[in-house]
Specification:
alpha+beta, three-stranded antiparallel sheet, globular
């Protein structure tokens, strides 16, 4: 799944589960959460800056060399620490093996980035430029290690130029998206559009017309071969950080669905809720729910769906509840209110 998507976004918010777990659940079904977590951090992946902080297939390590070089040329972000602190961090990792920032003795003083300790600033800078790597998390803390210990020698020896990196990442984004505009392709790994434009002609992507879009688009050959073939579709809830919907403009263009993460919007101004999860049914987005939990009850704090998507919504809520260990589903606000009773009946 990770290799097919190319990147799975990480986020600190955990409602039913953390987002990277929800991404796997949406595609693979009710795989045990512990098994999912183990699979991400079993040595075949690393964490780095892609669309945001993402889990990435380990073989893609060389293809982010362009970004590591960019960070090094740009210099340290926000805070500045001396080389002596960086050297101390590297020495500790060499002597002691993989360590969290707490192990290194430099846990941040508060939860805010501007109050990081010097050790935290140093190890994050070393992560940016590739002198340390994160291939696992422990209790949601990054575990830092030396690349020469954590990564295969062949990957460390591969140092592609910027054009090679960009060509690979643009092609990978096109495969993951199926069909995409220039902006879509750039957004996937947070590239600049001029970077995409400079390499797209050397990828396998094919220029196509998508009539309603009114903009040039590119498709992956696999997507073109699949035109007219009806695949299997899951009925499921999606993390708001899922790559299927993380680009709001693309989500509107593809699905005619206004999607917005409101976790960082003041509560009185929220329209759909704190962690609104779109409902995917038959390849379409047909509703949304803001979930929570109270003990072993999944609470649908605010739920809305199309009238003929009541049963799929009930199915998705029941399955998600069971996956996270809940044995009941409770409804709070239903929109439109006329669907409240049918939804309760569908939930059983």
């Amino acid at each position: 799944m990770l290799r097919r998507l190319g990147a799975v976004q990480l986020d600190t918010i955990s409602v039913l589960a953390r987002s990277h777990e929800l991404v796997a659940y949406a595609r693979l079904g009710a795989v045990a959460r512990g098994k999912v977590e183990h699979a991400y951090w079993s040595g075949d992946a690393f964490e780095y800056w892609s669309h945001a902080a993402c889990v990435l297939p380990v073989e893609e390590w060389p293809m982010f060399a362009f970004r590591r070089r960019h960070f090094r040329a740009r210099g340290q972000r926000w805070h500045k620490v001396g080389q002596e602190t960086c050297d101390q961090v590297l020495a500790a990792l060499r002597d002691n093996g993989p360590m969290t920032v707490s192990d290194l003795g430099g846990a941040r003083r508060t939860a805010e980035w501007w109050d990081w300790s010097d050790v935290k600033v140093a190890v994050e800078w070393l992560l940016d430029i590739g002198e340390v790597v994160c291939t696992k998390r422990r209790a949601w803390k990054r575990v830092y290690d030396l690349p020469e210990r954590a990564l295969p020698d062949a990957l460390l020896a591969d140092d592609p130029d910027d054009e090679t990196c960009l060509r690979r990442l643009v092609g990978q984004a096109g495969r993951a998206l199926g069909v995409a505009t220039l902006g879509d392709l750039a957004d996937y790994h947070r590239l600049r559009q001029d970077q995409v434009r400079g390499v797209i002609g050397d990828t396998d992507l094919v220029e196509v017309d998508v009539e309603p879009w009114g903009a040039r688009a590119w498709a992956h050959p696999d997507a073109l071969e699949a035109l007219g073939v009806r695949g299997r579709h899951r009925t499921t809830l999606l993390s708001p950080f899922d790559s299927l919907v993380w680009d709001r403009a693309r989500t509107l263009r593809l699905f005619d669905f206004h999607h917005r993460l409101e976790a960082y919007v003041p509560a009185p101004k929220r329209v759909h809720g704190y962690f609104t999860m779109p409902l995917l049914v038959g390849g379409r987005l047909r509703g949304r729910v803001d979930p929570g939990r109270d003990g072993t009850t999944l609470i649908a704090k605010r739920v809305s769906c199309e009238p003929d998507a009541v049963e799929p919504m009930a199915q998705a809520l029941r399955e998600a509840a069971e996956w996270v260990g809940c044995d009941a589903v409770a409804l709070d606000v239903v929109d439109p209110p006329a669907l409240a009773e049918p939804l309760r009946l569908a939930l059983g």
